């Protein structure tokens, strides 16, 4: 619990000093964007800086690999809420090079779970191979996620979806898909 204690001590000073004031914004994205990106730690500040985003500019949805794997998963739900309830007018899927999901298979994840005492037999009825596997190429994964979004029946026809890949070293964005709209 040492990390938690450090966090709570820091937080107490943060609030007392009113350091939060510089982050003040409202819940609506000022630049009317929803971004699906990876949870990679290298992107936490780099992505914002490389896109000239400030606190409150975009709704950021993070997961392992920036993957929208199913039209009715929590990522797609977040995108739809960002559009319908929070005013997002564009969707960006931004993967990154050197992603940990590249080449990931379920075997090492399950082996590590077993080592930590997890009974993997509890996963009966689940396609564990698909659930815990990544992708071969980030570009293909981004295009696939763009496709899942643009074929969703609840996506408004006027919302463009873009696919990009960012360098985690330089912040350079490579455009893969521009202005993709809902397929009919």
Give me the count of strands. Answer: 5
What sequence of helices (H) and strands (E) makes up the elements?
Answer: HEHEHEHHHEE
Average pLDDT score: 95
CATH superfamily of the largest domain: Carbonic anhydrase
Concise synopsis of the structure shown:
The chain has 184 residues and is an alpha/beta fold. It contains 6 helices and 5 strands, in the order H-E-H-E-H-E-H-H-H-E-E.
List the helices and strands and how they pair.
Layout: H1 2-16, E1 33-38, H2 43-50, E2 58-63, H3 74-84, E3 90-96, H4 106-115, H5 128-131, H6 138-150, E4 161-166, E5 173-180
Parallel strand pairs: 1-2, 1-3, 3-4
Antiparallel strand pairs: 4-5
Question: Could you explain how this protein is built, in words?
Answer:
- The chain has 184 residues and is α/β, with parallel strands linked by helices.
- The protein is built from six helices and five strands.
- It has helices spanning 2-16, 43-50, 74-84, 106-115, 128-131, 138-150; strands at residues 33-38, 58-63, 90-96, 161-166, 173-180.
- It has a five-stranded mixed beta sheet with strand order 2-1-3-4-5, with helices on both faces.
- Helix 2 links the parallel strand 1 (33-38) and strand 2 (58-63).
- The model has no long low-confidence stretch (mean pLDDT 95).
